[in-house]
Amino acid sequence: MKNKDLTYEEAILKLESILKELEEENCTLNDSLDKFKKGMDIYNYCNELLSKAEGEIKILLKDDNGNMVDVEFPVEG
User: Is 70 a member of any domain?
Assistant: First the structure.
């Protein structure tokens, strides 16, 4: 499965799994390097998704004049 097929939540779970494997398993240097590369790919993918979401939020928070609007989000609890 390629990263682009993953939701943000699925990517985070996969990244957590890779981190756990790196911490727990007795991997060879090559295996560790491969897992690190996969983890970095997923990390970069997650950052890309977050940046896109942030851009969409900024667009939604602009008023008719293109100015940012301060919006107070309700706090739960």
Answer: no
Structure tokens of 62?
């602009």
> For 1-42, how does the pLDDT look when each residue is reduced to its tens digit (9 = 90+)?
577 889 999 999 999 999 999 998 788 999 999 999 999 999
DSSP string computed for 11-52: HHHHHHHHHHHHHHS---HHHHHHHHHHHHHHHHHHHHHHHH
Residues 6 and 26: their CA atoms lie apart, in Å, by 28
User: Is the pTM here over 0.85, yes or no?
Assistant: no
The CATH number linked to 52 is 1.10.287
List C-alpha distances in Å: 56 to 15, 21, 49, 60: 25, 34, 11, 6
